Amino acid sequence: MACVLGIDGGGSRTTAALARDGHMVAEAIGPASNVRTHGVAASIAVLSDVTDRLLADAPDPDDVAAVCAGLAGAGHAKERAPIEAWLDGRFTGLPTTVVADVELVLAGGTPDRVGIAIVAGTGSIAFARDRRGMTARAGGRGPAIGDPGSGYAIGRAALIAITESLDGVRPESAMIRRFREQELVVGPDGLGAWSQPADLATLAELVAESADAGDGTAARILVTAGAALAAQALAVLRRLGFHGKVPAALAGGVLLNVPRVRDTLLERLGHNGVQLAPIELVEHPVTGAIRLAEGLSQSGAASR
Q1: Do both 69 and 137 map to the same domain?
Q2: Distance CA 275, CA 187 (A)
Q3: What confidence tens digit (pLDDT) does each residue in 185-220 have?
Q4: pTM for the full predicted model
Q5: Number of structural domains the chain divides into
Q6: Spatial separation of the C-alpha atoms in residues 279 and 119, rounded to whole Å
Q7: What pLDDT score was predicted for residue 19?
Q8: How many CA atoms lie within 13 A of 186 on its CB side?
């Protein structure tokens, strides 16, 4: 059986993988390729580099039957079009598709791609599909106007609290002491370095550690993040008429690694009559790209 190629282009890194019979045979990793954040040209440059390195190391680089790329920031047709054109040129004659990265999570973690995918990494988004094929989404609009509950939002909230402490608006807390111990904050002028969403998202881990150590401000930031994700999830589930038990795929560093956020998400949904079950924690969304590429390959074979 021929290989399929899957690409997961996220807000923190890009992963490309080749798989045969559902088993990964080669992988390459590169920097972020978010179309909306980095622009089309930069995204294509990353995708081209990662794909070239993947195929250079592959046992049979010409044995590719289909390609699926899931990219952050590619939720709309105008954002997908240039990536689709690049894929068509790079893999002439092969079936290819470009989807939003959250669709990889749904494909990788739910039965038959029915249910809800909730992602909280650098950014955040909720995306659901019902058995009719109808879809709904909330969030995923980038740091300027969205991404509530994301690593970026957590890091930004932490820096706001720290700035208020530095300015004397609120008392110093264990969280700011922890940031100082890590030499992440050395004074008001040291805050300017945290300007990129991905950089801010890395602070979520320290916020979680501070909350676990008993810092009330850090704990409130994480609860707020979980509640924001629950609000997004409820919005899309209600639009599609989901209720009761809903299959769910959770992904992103925040949901995978910060239990307080995940627990708040599940608790708030439960209070609103929704139980996520079964839940799959999707650590490697590229597996969803592989599954979608396998579907393309099978459809192409059936049509011949």
Answers
A1: no
A2: 44
A3: 655 555 555 667 778 888 899 999 999 999 999 999
A4: 0.88
A5: 2
A6: 13
A7: 93
A8: 5
